[in-house]
Amino acid sequence: MDAQARIKETVSTNPVVLYMKGNPKFPQCGFSNLATQILDACQAKYISVDVLQDQEVREGIKQFANWPTIPQLYINGEFVGGSDIMRAMYESGELQTMLDAVK
Questions:
Q1: Cis peptide before 68 (omega within 30 of 0)
Q2: Fewest CB atoms within 10 A around its CB: which of 5, 18, 35, 83?
Q3: What digits encode the pLDDT tens for the residues 42-88?
Q4: For the whole model, what pTM was predicted?
C-alpha cells in the first residue's frame, strides 16, 4: 500500500488524526507540541502519526492535503489545518464544537 492509500485509510477510519513530528508525550517540534496541547485542552480522543518514523508518509501527507507543513489535523476524514489554524479555531470555540460532534 502506498503512502497516499495509507494516509487515506488512517484519516477515514479514525475520527480525529494528528500527523505530527514525534508523539503526544514527546513532540519533536514546537508546532506539534502546540497542536497536542490544543487537542488535550479540548479533551479530544485522537490518534497521532509520527511522520519522522516514515519518510513516505512525511512527504505524502504534504501532497495529500496540499498543505506544506506538519502538524496536520484531520477530523472525520477532512483536513482541518495546522497548528496556527488549530489555535485560531480553539480560541474561537470552533475546534471544540467540531471535536464534540465526533465524541
A1: no
A2: 5
A3: 999 999 999 999 999 999 999 999 999 999 999 999 999 999 999 99
A4: 0.96
